[in-house]
Amino acid sequence: MTSRIHAIDVHAEGEPGRVLIGSHLHVKGATMAERLRHCRETLDPLRRLLLREPRGYPGLCGVLILPPADPVADFGLVVLEQGGFKPMSGSNLICAVTALVETQALPVSEPVTELVVDTAVGLVSVRAEVADGKVTRVTFDNVASFAVALDHVLELPEYGRVPVDIVFGGQFFVQARAADLGIELDAPAAKQITRAGAVLRAAAQQQFPVVHPNNPDIDQVSLTMIHGPSATPGVSGRNAVVLPNGEVDLADPATWTGSLDRSPCGTGTSGRMAALHARGELGVNVPFVHEGILGTTFTGTLRGTTQIGGYQAVLPSISGRGWITGFSQFVLDDSDPFPQGYVLGDLWGQARTAAADLIELEG
Ligand SMILES: O=C(O)[C@H]1NCC[C@@H]1O
């Protein structure tokens, strides 16, 4: 027997997102938080199948489209990253909206289609600008974002003591200045950036426990942002976000590998804006143009402030563009010896994970 999975591949300002439609029958839960937990508990094989080789690649993310749990919303989403299922992602939300609007899976109106998206960390209002059926820009009102710590000093192997911000922008991030790590935020330094990002994330996970006040399942620093100034006129700052290449074993530095977000990262930009606001360096309604490693930009603005748990929080909106790159029907044949795909150290840098896959297959 074979299983078939339909997907629309999209990129948002360079970052690929595989939009999975029609897989929702497998996901149970009365709220999006319960559905995220259900995905983590039962759907990891699907995530691995679609993101790993031979169907995926290290830089790939995905997004599962679900019916909304809250009836005011148009659809729900759960994000698939190489590091696991996540509650929210800016690039993946832009990919999802671009795919659903351009295929008219939802009622579309021009010049603007307004939608509400349900996530495990809250509702997100979306405005998609549409011209002749093409989505030309997506702006979303992200969930409340906040700084947990500013200039907290982490002890890092290889880099010494480095001040970081721990922030939430839809996921928890550790964010550090490129100058403090002695690296340039340019494409030729990609390997150095991913190494520094992976070390920072491992150190933050070991030294700085986090938990979201409204969702105790969001309890991990998932991503690293390294940031610095931009030389581009009109751009407020530059950044590179590092995603883990798979499940990380904190006790085994061989698994501390990563890939760069190809976009300027919506959740990371929201967290960065929260830190800048907390320092008094970014006001409400001031555009913040954030450039990623490919030179593409997301534009953020703070639409106000709020309180979340004990944290002073900001309400960021993020705007960017997405492009459909393909329509796929993935197949899993019952006799395929790699039902969860595989990783190999040549591309993924994770010798240990690859070995674990091979043992799984033999068992
Ligand atoms: O835009 C974002 O928020 C993200 N891009 C890939 C990793 C993050 O989820």
Automatic annotation (TrEMBL):
It holds the Pfam family Pro_racemase. Signal peptide: none annotated. This is Proline racemase family protein. Coiled coil: none annotated. The lineage of its organism: Bacteria, Bacillati, Actinomycetota, Actinomycetes, Pseudonocardiales. Belongs to the proline racemase family. Gene3D superfamilies: Diaminopimelate Epimerase, Chain A, domain 1.
